[in-house]
Amino acid sequence: MKKITFFAKSVFMAAILLGSLNVAAQVELKVLTQMSTRFNDVNDSGFGVTVGQYYNFTTGTLTSPEPEAVMLASTNNDENVAGFMFYDEPNFILQAGYRMNGVWMPIGFTPNQDPTNYDENFTYGISPNSRYITGQSNIGNDYGGFLFDTQTEELIISLDPQGEASASYAVNDSGIMVGWVDRPDSGGTLRVPAYRTLDGEYHLIPEGQLPTISGVNAISDINSADVMVGDFDLKPFMYNRATNTFTSFDVPTGADSAAFTSISENGVAVGFADVDFQVRDAIIYHPSLGDQPLFLKDVLADNGVTVNTPDGLLGTAISVSPNGKYIAGWVNGSPPFAEGWMVYLDDLILGTNTVSQNTVSYFPNPVESILHLNSKEAIDSVSVYTITGQLVSNIAFNENKTELNFSSLATGVYLVKVTSNGSVENLKVVKQ
């Protein structure tokens, strides 16, 4: 596979021209210069958390957390945060904690855990609705995931019923924890992507197929539609629980392996590819970009943004915001000391509006002559562009339904920009 297809480049060129007509459209990369600022998470407003600070993308500023917080792990759109607090500060014993409405509260331990004997609850994720917090726990040498309910304040340590180690990296509003479990193999243990539902059941994916490579393989994230992403046998995957569909993707050309780390509510997946020994480069996937993951730096380059990191790479993309507009990660180097970065991608460029946000319907597609447009709001204007960005028609309207005559246009792909009630929607139409 080429690093980025001609078609994808053409789509981005056209999208840039379309975006130039909309002052809100932009793509921006901010690379932090301070050491130890690698990001762990970001939300829809560009509020991010590094290991030890809050970040505001708009102002480009880092601020210290409340004094009760020791480390930060994840956040959501309410800016509630999961992280760590001190349990015993003189002996530097940490406990899981969370910030709710600006106030930090401890999670503590279960009665059968002994924090003075190295039992711990290591925080990874908070659900979008702030009800659940998850991570990895241990009771002695038994390792599993934990689930904390912020409403009932119940803490559950979930151990694999087959007695193997497990971990949980993320949790959604339904309390589904995702991560991995170990399974014995001839060489010792084999890590397998797995999720746990609230009934306590573990489910391995893909069903009936174990990976062949040890040491990797995990579900890294899950969205509210129960779509999960991760890595399986050194390749990124996406699993839709509703349809029981497991999709494995190719490793980008020039890389040895790849993994997805995060998925948005509208299907933008991000992660990393291993391009050399201990050297990564961030990747991104969405159907509007093509059928395989691309290097994020190539997407940025096609939109006029230069990656100004020491090695010209973006390293690890660890999180994408729920709306798919912000991506956060860190550059290559020792993770404890790595500098963080954050990207803003306008939704007009990615075309990531969810179905519920769409106000314009159109048919038929492909079209031979007449394209019918129906809008919830009165259509103000319609512009038609070639895939290379050339304007071929621009018509003003003031009605909810209209027709466009494509009969005189050459066969190919066109971008139709529909403006209604101050909003802009871009449609991709194929002319036969």
Automatic annotation (TrEMBL):
Highest taxon listed in the record's lineage: Bacteria
Annotated signal sequence range: 1-25
Pfam entry (one): Por_Secre_tail
InterPro entries: Secre_tail
Organism: Aequorivita sublithincola (strain DSM 14238 / LMG 21431 / ACAM 643 / 9-3)
Protein name: Secretion system C-terminal sorting domain-containing protein
Biological classification of the source: Bacteria, Pseudomonadati, Bacteroidota, Flavobacteriia, Flavobacteriales
Boundaries of every Secretion system C-terminal sorting domain copy: 363-424
Keywords: Signal
